[in-house]
Amino acid sequence: MSKHTLRKIALLTSGGDAPGMNACIRAIVLTAYHFGIEVIGYRHGYNGLLQQEYKPLRPADVHNIIQRGGTILHSARCLEFTKDTAAQLAAKNLDSLGIDALLVIGGDGSFKGAEHLARFWNGQLIGLPGTIDNDINGTDATIGYYTAIETALSSIDKVRDTADAFERIFIIEVMGRHAGFIGLSAAVASAADQLVVPELCRDKEEELAHIIAKLDKSRQERGNSSHIIVITENLWHSNAAVLSETLQQRTGLECRPVILGHVQRGGSPVSQDRMLATKMGAYAVEAALDGQTGVMVVEKDHQLNTQPLAVSWEHKKALDPYLVKVQNELFT
Ligand code: F6P
Questions:
Q1: What's the pLDDT score for residue 239?
Q2: What pLDDT was estimated at residue 53?
Q3: Quick one: 136 and 29 in the same domain?
Q4: Which candidate, 26, 40, 75, 307, has a CA 20 to 30 Å from the CA of 142?
Q5: How far is the CA of 131 from the centre of ligand 1 (A)?
Q6: Phi-psi category of 136—alpha, beta or left, where left has phi over 0 and alpha has psi -120 to 50?
Q7: 13 with 139, same domain?
């Protein structure tokens, strides 16, 4: 990459925090230091940018954080940032500190914020995909996704023990907002009996009939046994508990809901997230040095690259079709 003059960069973490965000902050700070670039970190996402709440970040500040979940910069959702006045204030604040580039670690909502800011600010904007949901088009994985799968998996394995002891049916709700990536991976890796994700969900009555038919089939084949149904949040009237109750009423069998919730956002990042975050953080600084702007860092087939920010939300990312086939066709 050719090197473009960059004296000072800012970074922030925005939206739902994801394990690996700290590893990414560390990589950005260390790479910037290598090139003699000053770094500041805004706290509380875009809110910090509006309120000039920031701190300098030097290598000593990112020592011993690679293994920590959450984000040392804290995060927030900033609804106000959709207003032009907010983006104008942010541009003014960045200019007053002499910032050449702003690096945003977050999901597509955070990238929309960056795109909005670009209308009012001449500095460079680079996004880094950080969300457990993995719902960002153009990159194979997002920072935090692998850890969230592991966390969901270890909980599902534990539920399986008690489910087995009582030969019960468990409906386990995982996060993902409106995407089934965590659900699909956790279901395959935990040998879940059924999967309900937004991308494949039928009409409610049809889905219910399908779930009951599969349940009947498994009881015919295995007799009474535990039965795990993984479902993504925001489906079934927004709650797995509703599906559990409906299923119990319709089948007369004992069903229990388990909502994994925010536990999936926490914990020490697994090695895949640490490495992805480290590579992406370093690459983002190099992309900024290369003069790029309005882009996000992606990794496809183990190859780092950048793509326009809008690609992340303009096309919906698809689930791995072969994993879907394994879970929903070959194993049923
Ligand atoms: O985007 C990450 C995520 O954890 C989603 O999976 C979930 O729907 C949402 O954030 C929860 O947001 P909040 O923490 O604001 O309730």
A1: 86
A2: 98
A3: yes
A4: 40
A5: 9
A6: beta
A7: yes
* pLDDT tens column, 211-269: 999 999 999 999 999 999 999 999 988 789 999 999 999 999 999 999 999 999 999 99
Report the pocket of ligand 1 as residue ranges, CB < 6 Å: 16, 107, 131-133, 175-177, 233, 265
The answer to whether residues 12 and 93 belong to one domain is yes
How remote is the CA of residue 116 from the centroid of ligand 1, in Å?
A: 22
Quickly count helices (H) and strands (E) in the chain: 11, 11
Listed in sequence order, the residues at least 6 apart from 52 whose beta carbon sits closer than 8 Å to its beta carbon are 93, 96, 97
pLDDT tens track for 167-200 = 999 999 999 999 999 999 999 999 999 999 999 9
CB atoms under 10 Å from CB of 217, counted, come to 12
What residue numbers bound the domain in which 206 lies? 145-265
Ligand 1, atom 2, residue with closest C-alpha: 16
**What's the mean pLDDT in 197-210?**
93
Q: What residue's CA is closest to ligand 1, atom 11?
A: 16
Structure confidence at residue 1 (pLDDT):
46
Residue 19 lies in a domain: yes
| Residue of 182, 235, 265, 317 best suited for mutating to test ligand 1, as the one with most atoms within 8 Å of CB | 265
Same domain, 19 and 140: yes
Cα separations in angstroms, 251 against 83, 206, 209, 227, 254: 50, 15, 11, 13, 9
Tell me the per-residue pLDDT of 147-158, one tens digit each, with 9 for 90 and over: 999 999 999 999
Choose the residue to mutate in 132, 149, 177, 262 for probing ligand 1, maximizing ligand atoms within 8 Å of C-beta: 177
How high is the mean pLDDT of the chain? Answer: 96
In terms of domains, do 70 and 198 share one?
no
Which residues are annotated as catalytic? 133
